[in-house]
Amino acid sequence: MTTANTILELEAVTKAYAGPAGSTPVLKGVDLAVEAGETVAIVGPSGCGKSTLLNMAGTLDQPDGGRVTFRGKSLPGMTPKEAARFRNNEIGFVFQLHHLLPQCSVLENVLVPTLVHTGGEDAPERARQLLDRVGLSDRLDYRPGQLSGGERQRVAVARALINRPALLLADEPTGSLSPEGAMDLTRLMIALNREDALTLVVVTHSQEVAAHMGRVVELRDGVLRPRETRP
Amino acid sequence: MNRLRLIRRSMGYYRRMHLGVFAGAVVGAAVLTGALLVGDSVDASLRGIALARLGDTAHALDTRKQYFREELGERLSMRMGHTIPSVLRLRGMALAEPPAVPERRQANRVQVLGVGKDFWTLAGGGDGIPASPGPAAVINTHLAQRLGVGAGDEIALRIEIPDRMSRDAPLSARDEDRSIRVRLTVERVAPDRGLGRFSLATDQTAPYNVFLPRAWLQEQVRLPGEVNLLLAGTAVEAEKLAHTLRDEWSPADVGLHVRGKVLESDRVFLGGPVAKAALTLPNATGTLAYLVNTISRDGKRTPYSFMVAGATPKGMDDDEIIISEWLSGQISASVGDTVTVAYSVLLPDNRYEERKRDFTVRGIASMDAMIEARKLVPSFPGLEDVENCADWDVGLPMDEELLADKANEAYWDAYHTTPKALVTLAAGQAMWSNRFGSLTAVRFAGKNDTPDAILAGLKDALDPAAVGLVFRPVREEALTAVSRAIDFGGLFLGMSFFLILSAFLLTGLLFVLGAQYRAGEMGILLALGFTPAQARRQLLAEAGLVAVAGGATGALAGCGYTWALIQGLAHYWQSAVAHSPILFHVTPGTLLTGAVASSLAALFAMVTATWRQVRLPARQLLTLDFASTSPGRERFPRAGLWFPLLGLAFACVSAVCLALYATGSIVEPFFGVGALVLLSGLGLCRHALCVLGAGSSARHPTLFRLALQNMARRRARSLSVIVLLASGCFLVFAVSAMKEDLTKGAHRRASGTGGFALFGESTLSLLEAPSDTAVGIKVRDGDDASCLNLNHAMTPRLLGVNGTELASRGAFASREQAKALWSLLDLDLPDGVIPALVGDSDTAMWGLKAKMGVENGDELTYLDDRGESFRVRLVASLPMRLSVFQGTILIADQYFTERFPSEAGYRMFLIDAPPGEAATVARSLNRRFEREGIEVIPSVKRLARFYAVESTYLGMFLVLGGLGVLLGTVGMGIVTLRNLLERRGEIAMLRAVGYNTVSIRRLLLMEHGMLAAMGLALGVIAAAVAMIPAIASASSGVALGLQLQLLAGIALCAAGCIALALRAARPGRDLSALRNE
Does A114 touch chain B (CB under 8 A)? Predict the structure, then answer.
């Protein structure tokens, strides 16, 4: 149900992929409304279209049908420039692989989003604060190659937050981490949600991660259904 | 943190990746800039040669075979305040018997220069004339090397004796010695880098020069005080020089003199412009004296009598004649009787034809009156100091029996050249006018007509240019010729094309491999809010920096490449530059051009290579595995099949049409057909890879099938390997097939030899062809427009040919076309334009870069003997690419003799010889006409001299193209290595499931070997199509052995690169990659 506080809404979203055997529908009319400050976990079997759904919310992919709106503004209608600005200002991405730039230091990686559109003079200071919050203040000049997997993912989270986004989209953020590392990262994201009112949408296979979210929805057979039972 | 810092970080972090790209860009830039710098070096060398051969000379007054008084030069020097050296320039041959060499050595076409000390001022005083006035010579290095002599050695020189009157002219002396032989001591050898190579021809080849004291030479050749060349330096202003020449020249300078009140010429006939100007003067009347064969009446006759036309009373009709008392008695003719005059007429081909004309006797003049009329008969060189008629040397056909006529002998003793009859000028000119003139004297009747007054009047009425006295801006012409010379920069750029292409393809390939490695980085930038353009710019900024660094470094390295090419030109490819020394020369502008062009080319290669990748959406960039699949849309395979099939069909139709209907050469069009087959083949390969990639996996897999599928996984990479090898093979094979065997078909009349077994050239002209089977050709020296001259020919050598004779032999065209071809020379074009044929199609295309056509052909301007300019229109060329006439322009001999009456006889010969006897005939002719400096060689040898240039170009192309192929195989090796490294996990998996190292290596070898084989096969097939006409041609020199060697070489290189890549990647040796997965 849509309210005035709804930050992200997907309505009857469809998507199909072309293959050797013809078109394969992945999303068959997905409806999802996310309130500001909410934490949502999207779960489902592999290949069901979870990441596709997340990419559409982040303007990295386009739906074949239906509506995707962010604070009431339609995302699919954006020009590439508008979409880039939207990704830069309004959302943050965290992927299963950290995708840090190996040539840059930890601090520089966090500052990469400030190179376009926004930034400001306080960006380096904010980057330090963010790295402090994720527990990496002593690793500012390290290169990604000198960090553990969990540390790299924490840097990726800090990078996602540098432009103060309202929504954090995380695609299997703990997929390549150890169980301890996965729990640390989940706690970090929940803390950020609570302290900064950051809306969090997480695609995950992990029941533990999903359990920490306020709401869990399951994508199956191309449609989203709320999951009633918790593990 | 800013974007520049990010670029800097990336450059540093990926330095090894960039280093490879940088290396590719450096190679490309070095080759590109090096090629351009070769052009600079050739240009600078040609310019240096042009300035060396001229010294300080800027203007030259060159009257060739017409001589004038050297005082003219002295007067001009005085007036201008600058030295204007006079030179007597003659042709000759030099001989030497150097002690160190067993056989004697001869040099034909030697330039014999009679110079004074002033000549050497043009060299800045560095050289010098022999101090002694006697027989000592300065020779140039080129001649010294040819003869094998040095200072202090003795040489023999045969020098032409100039004729004041052309030996072709009626009444000229033909039996006089035409050359003298002198023995000389070489006093000094003047280097060819200075005035030692003095020449007015725009040619980079050093002439054979002998410098002699002018006065001594004049004395030897019986031409005291006369010269045929004036030179003015750069300090002299052209306009002032022309003005001063008009003021200072005198008709007496060019052999015009007044005897009593009669204006005559040393050359007997008064040229058209002189006669025309003289007749505009008051009280002037023209007369024409001639020696007729007989004057007869009713069976009585007197032989060989002088007659004068023009000294007749007013009112006399043109069919009337006044005869002398002596003649009247001799043939019993009275007033009213009819007498017949028989006379010889000079035809354009120098033969004489006897004609007759009847006259009615109007009166009988006393011998006193006739002796008075003798003043109108000029002095004939062959009649001076001759006692008997039998000793006359007048160049006309003489009957021995008639010459023995006793009465005539008595008349000669008593009256010498006193005319026996007079006719009107109109009647005389109708009978005896010829290309040398239609007057032999102009008589003045005014009281004040003193010799000085007549000459002064004539000077005012006559432009000195009309008698050949005109300065040409030879320095400007030389520099223009250099500026329009063969573009060696372009030539080497073309020859290095595949090498450059390979280098930049390699650059692009290495960059795209790096970009694929960093695809996730691009994706994350997009995900973090970079616009696609910003993300692209970030990557391309790095590409730009590498390109600029590579371009700049490569441009500097290009100097080394240039140096290597110049070494090649000096030691292995001398024919390409006609054995001219090429000096290393670097122009900063070219260096900059090379750097900028190379940077742009490298950047273009990188942008093109990453074009599709940088346009992929972030989602794909973040997830795509470049090692296993091709990025971008997967197109339905069948869609790509139509274009290659259509291309192949078009190639087949074109080939059939060319074979059936083409009239000209089909070698080049077939090269295009081959290229189309290549492109279509590449399209088919692409389609095949698509089909393999999309193939059903339901069939039972085999190692071979797995290898096929692996080939299709990275379609772009696989295709790039095929493209590199196929293009390289195609170019190398197709170009190597263009080599011709000139001996095949050279006996045919339609070939470039005209079917003539021998070709001859002489230093001195022969008045007749040297044998019955020879065709003589008249020659007006000019610039060599053949491929042996690197300069642009300004006024190409002009040949006067008898088209009817050549057409009757069916020479230089098929029998059906020969008549039509040679009849073009007889066309009557408007405005006095003379039709001309270019020596062969290569001369037209490369030497002259001229358009041809009867209506709209390009025109060249020449100066004739009288200094008048005339135009020749290039109506067509001889149909073959290469002929013995390469570098020349052919006009009909009647036009030639009209314009250049001074060019007596023939200096070029086409000679038939019975099969198997060519060598004997050549030896015999060379011996018989040794004094004329004849050089008879097999016609094929002359073609081979020209073909050596093209052959060398082909050789150079093969070397540079081969290097390109080598670079292509290196690229293939890199792709292989990269594939193996990216697939370490997959290979480890194969190892884990039980494949042994041998099986894995076999799989990989099969996969990459098939790619290489596809490339080689496609290149060979396309080249074979392109080679069809060359193979079928009679003159084809396709060396299958060489082709097979090349193929084996390329295949070995490809196999070596794959082997090296396999060795470096050590596929399947460890399972760590699997653990990492």
Answer: yes
Per-residue model confidence (pLDDT) at position B1025 = 87
Amino acid at B475: R
- Judged against a pLDDT cut of 70, whether residue B579 lies above it is answered with yes
Interior angle at CA B425, CA B421 and CA B429, nearest 5 = 100
Identify whether the C-beta of residue B903 lies closer than 8 Å to the C-beta of residue B780.
Answer: yes
**Contact assignment for B521 to A99 by CB distance below 8 Å:** yes
Say yes or no: B632 contacts chain A, CB-CB below 8 A.
no
Q: Please, are residues B559 and B565 in contact by the beta-carbon 8 Å criterion?
A: no
**How sure is the predictor about B77, in pLDDT bands with cuts at 50, 70 and 90?**
very high
In 3D, which of A34, A23, A29 has the Cα closest to residue A57?
Answer: A34
- Supply the ipTM of this predicted assembly: 0.84
Interface test with B, best of A53, A60, A86, A114 (most B CBs within 10 A): A60
Instruction: Tell me the per-residue pLDDT of B447-461, one tens digit each, with 9 for 90 and over.
Output: 888 999 999 999 999
Q: How many CB atoms lie within 10 A of CB A76?
A: 17
* Residues from chain A contacting residue B8 (CB–CB below 8 Å): none
Query: Does B617 contact A61 at a Cβ distance shorter than 8 Å?
Result: yes
- What is the per-residue pLDDT across B255-288, written as a single tens digit (0 to 9) for each? 899 988 899 988 888 888 888 999 999 989 999 9
Say whether B257 sits in a helix, a strand or coil.
strand
**B619 in contact with A, Cβ within 8 Å:** yes
- Asked if residue B156 has pLDDT above 80, the reply is yes
Collapsed DSSP state (helix, strand, coil) of residue B759? strand
Say what the pLDDT of residue B173 is. 65
pTM for the full predicted model: 0.77
Separation in Å, CA of B620 to nearest CA in chain A: 9
Longest dimension (CA), chain A: 53
Strand extents, DSSP E, A71-166? 73-74, 91-94
CB contact under 8 A, A159 and B528: yes
Q: Write down the pLDDT at residue A230.
A: 47
Q: Specify whether the CB–CB gap between B227 and B67 falls below 8 A.
A: yes
- pLDDT of B387 > 90? The answer is no
Contact (CB, 8 A) for A204 and A210: yes
* pLDDT score of B229: 96
Q: How many helices (H) and strands (E) does chain B have?
A: 34, 29
Considering only CA atoms, which of B480, B488, B565 is closest in space to residue B790? B488
Instruction: Report how far apart, in Å, the C-alpha atoms of B486 and of each of B392, B575, B788 are.
Output: 53, 14, 11
